[in-house]
Amino acid sequence: xxxxxxxxxxxxxxxxxxxxxxxxxxxxxxxxxxxxxxxxxxxxxxxxxxxxxxxxxxxxxxxxxxxxxxxxxxxxxxxxxxxxxxxxxxxxxxxxxxxxxxxxxxxxxxxxxxxxxxxxxxxxxxxxxxxxxxxxxxxxxxxxxxxxxxxxxxxxxxxxxxxxxxxxxxxxxxxxxxxxxxxxxxxxxxxxxxxxxxxxxxxxxxxxxxxxxxxxxxxxxxxxxxxxxxxxxxxxxxxxxxxxxxxxxxxxxxxxxxxxxxxxxxxxxxxxxxxxxxxxxxxxxxxxxx
Length: 290
What we know:
The protein has 13 helices and six strands.
């Protein structure tokens, strides 16, 4: 990006609208949640939540107004509106969208193919009745009568019995955190999935103010997640246990890559074994069609 474009962007009223609404949203959340206890004593629990909701609604109203009226397709532009997206931007956008959608997909129940070929014993294939054998039977006959066969089975497309992506404490008595799935990546997967998707889509538009607007959810995830962790460490509005804090992170993948979860290679392999594969594959396909 040229210096002239940066100067034009910084002087653009559209940039103020692009960042202003999101900044208002971040600040009101920080201020109100940080002073939660004081405000509840003054306003009451219901009053606090009404006040919080009213300010958040106002902030998001300004965010929406900015996009629809001030930011979308606003100058300066990296290329002509409606023109082809550069190949590099498309590839980076696909990677980010696949990551964001992939993270979001892991929060849903595990998907599975609704039909499967399973082993069925001879007793099961006869409705549970034991086979009737007349007279002496050879070992080969007995083996044939009880040998399993293959049959198609219809099952629910959601595997609600899968619990690999849930975090808790182990049963060893040590109280150590037993982390799984998304919790290996970040303590705030929903926020970060939303932010990464915003960044991925920002790369597909030529308008620099619009890119800033689309990228701001990433700041919401970073700042909002860090502040939530800070409050929960102090017991404000939730709890973040030290044993869980020490092996997880706000920024995605940081705890895995800095050794907080042990050997980096093993942590990555463990995570790979916990990924809901079909969910991730569908998310990647959706990113490719974006």
